[in-house]
Here is the input.
Amino acid sequence: MSTQTRITVETSFGWIALAENAVGLTAVTLPQPTEFDALALLQSLTGDTEADAGDRLLGTAEKLRRYYAGEVVEFDETLDMSRGSEFQQQVWLATRQVPRGVMTTYGALAAAVGAGPASARAVGRCMATNPWPPIVPCHRVLGKDGSLTGFGGGIETKRRMLEMEGALLPLG
Here is the structure.
């Protein structure tokens, strides 16, 4: 396995840790309350990393900081998807095509990868193992009835992200 480097960045939502190897980005954590929590989560996703970020990782960290500040950013990073199955990779790529401010459903993503709506739960499992939120914007995927279901960062974080993107009107 190639060496992975890491960086942390504090955002308006909390601390994020991200890692990359020579192929591309290997993981991004959802916002955590502390830098320590973000690094612990990153280690659970990637294993050992070195604190030696290059320009590419620094640029991605800055994009994530700006994203969580509400700015429109284009995530065009190369992702190392080698740990995912062919199906996971197809679903992650399809999810990456869901634009800011737009929501889709697990069933629609299943159909987009040729799996049909009966595979909606399998798509949900792909979202649960997505190592690059919000670069692969799994927060934009809803239940078939439009409900804000299943999100590793919690439903309130999902709601905040969708509100920030203009996909949902703020509550209250």
Notes: The longest strand covers residues 5-11. The chain has a mean pLDDT of 91. Residues 57 and 125 are 27 Å apart (CA to CA).
